[in-house]
């Protein structure tokens, strides 16, 4: 077990009961359980959840875990739907981006405006994040952290050994890839899971067309915009990236790809920076063992996915405790502790970036910049509802697994998919 893991367990097992004991006399006689439905099940994600658990216990809230395995949350969303249909929504759920608003429309989500104003989120939370969690003038979720999707992780040892520099554009990437292949190392770890393909594609697309066009395509989702020639390059590049490793691609969890980076089977990996959290959970260090740069062509752009927790209405009526949970997870202390492990960065503007690791510092600084080029992730529900996201991911997946499909056909299908109801 790695040292972070050990120290976390030690704190929970030995010190926490004592700390809680000291506070019991005041308000914390019986920490109330709040069941939280989420999809954080990898090693790094588990450690990050444990950190939240710890912060909450110190404040008299007990996190009851309802973890549904499955990267990108496909299964968790289905479980949430069925629990709601059965009339038993959890107290809290990992609801993010556009889906948050969909659930609010059916009356499931509890308002958090009172918490937000008590905790002064208007002053401390980044405006882009606040905007994302505000619907019809009401704050409807607690922000946990900001992930950067346009992240390219690379193994520092391999790069140093072969005298390579992390690529900043696709020409450099191609040269690096060739050298790596020549040494028998896979240039890029790959999975054919639809959500992972969509994750890579949107980062490639951003690099190819820039933030303004990206917004037109992904945020405004103008069908005709998808038919123009600049999309061709992004689609062709996606096909190329899938093949450069020279092996038959297959669907596999993102953690397997991350494992290839630590074992030096592969040298690079394009994935949201939760993959950084994973590598750290396995004992790798972003200063020593691996590095992160923006996906080629996207330097200083931030393709974001913000993790948020929504408090749901149900028969248990634990409103006060749900509000407490929202309050605790958004304090500067919790945000720093949690995001340091999760791989993301605090959703707050009042932290010292010097206290972050180099990948996180880059991400937070790019997000906080006055003239920041911030664009929302489609693959991670920031820009459109679940159905649209799935429709786009399906088209991309089909385009990759069917080499007969022409680029023009894929574009036509994408133009339809972005308009899914
Ligand atoms: C979530 C992350 C999670 C990742 C992998 C993303 O959609 O925002 O928190 O780590 O999926 O499951």
**CATH-defined topology of the largest domain:** D-Maltodextrin-Binding Protein, domain 2
Rg (C-alpha, Å): 21 Å
Please trace the helix and strand order, writing H or E for each element.
HEHEHEHHHHEEEEHHEHHHEHEEHHHEHH
Domains (count):
2
Question: What amount of the residues lies in strands?
Answer: 5-15%
CATH class of the largest domain: Alpha Beta
Structural class: alpha/beta
Fourth-level CATH superfamily of the largest domain: Periplasmic binding protein-like II
Bound molecules: beta-D-glucopyranose
* Amino- and carboxy-terminal Cα gap: 46 Å
Shape summary: globular
Unreliable spans are 1-28
Q: Give the beta-strand count.
A: 12
Number of helices: 18
Biggest sheet descriptor: 6 strands, mixed
- What's the architecture of the largest domain in CATH terms? 3-Layer(aba) Sandwich
Helix content: 40-55%
Q: What do the pLDDT scores average to?
A: 93
């Amino acid at each position: 077990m790695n040292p972070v893991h050990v120290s976390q367990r030690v704190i929970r097992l030995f010190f926490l009961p004592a700390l809680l004991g000291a506070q019991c006399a005041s308000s914390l006689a019986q920490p109330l359980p709040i069941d939280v439905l989420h999809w954080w099940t990898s090693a790094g994600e588990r450690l990050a959840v444990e950190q939240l658990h710890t912060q909450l216990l110190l404040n008299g809230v007990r996190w009851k875990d309802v973890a549904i395995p499955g990267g990108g949350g496909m299964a968790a969303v289905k479980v949430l739907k069925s629990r709601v249909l059965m009339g038993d929504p959890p107290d809290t759920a990992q609801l993010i981006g556009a889906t948050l608003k969909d659930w609010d429309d059916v009356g499931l989500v509890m308002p958090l405006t009172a918490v937000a104003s008590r905790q002064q989120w208007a002053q401390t939370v980044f405006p882009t994040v606040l905007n994302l969690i505000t619907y019809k003038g009401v704050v409807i979720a607690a922000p946990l952290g900001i992930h950067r999707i346009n992240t390219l992780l690379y193994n520092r040892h391999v790069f140093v050994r072969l005298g390579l520099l992390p690529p900043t554009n696709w020409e450099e990437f191609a040269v690096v890839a060739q050298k790596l292949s020549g040494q028998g190392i896979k240039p890029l770890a790959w999975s054919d899971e639809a959500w992972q393909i969509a994750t890579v594609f949107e980062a490639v697309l951003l690099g190819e067309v820039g933030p303004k066009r990206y917004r037109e395509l992904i945020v405004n989702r103008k069908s005709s915009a998808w038919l123009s020639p600049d999309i061709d390059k992004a689609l062709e590049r996606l096909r190329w990236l899938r093949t450069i490793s020279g092996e038959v691609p297959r669907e596999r969890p993102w953690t397997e790809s991350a494992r290839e980076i630590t074992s030096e089977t592969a040298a690079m990996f394009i994935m949201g920076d939760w993959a950084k959290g994973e590598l750290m959970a396995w004992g790798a260090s972003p200063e020593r063992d691996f590095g992160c740069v923006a996906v080629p062509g996207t330097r200083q752009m931030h393709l974001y996915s913000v993790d948020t927790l929504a408090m749901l209405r149900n028969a248990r009526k634990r409103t006060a405790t749900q509000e407490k949970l929202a309050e605790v997870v958004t304090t500067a202390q919790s945000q720093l502790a949690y995001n340091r492990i999760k791989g993301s960065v605090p959703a707050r503007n009042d932290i010292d970036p010097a206290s972050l690791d180099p990948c996180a510092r880059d991400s937070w600084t790019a997000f906080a910049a006055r003239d920041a080029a911030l664009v929302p992730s489609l693959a991670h529900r920031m820009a459109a509802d679940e159905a649209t996201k799935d429709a786009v991911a399906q088209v991309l997946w089909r385009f990759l697994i069917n080499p007969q499909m022409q680029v023009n056909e894929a574009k036509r299908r994408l133009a339809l998919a972005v308009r899914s109801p």
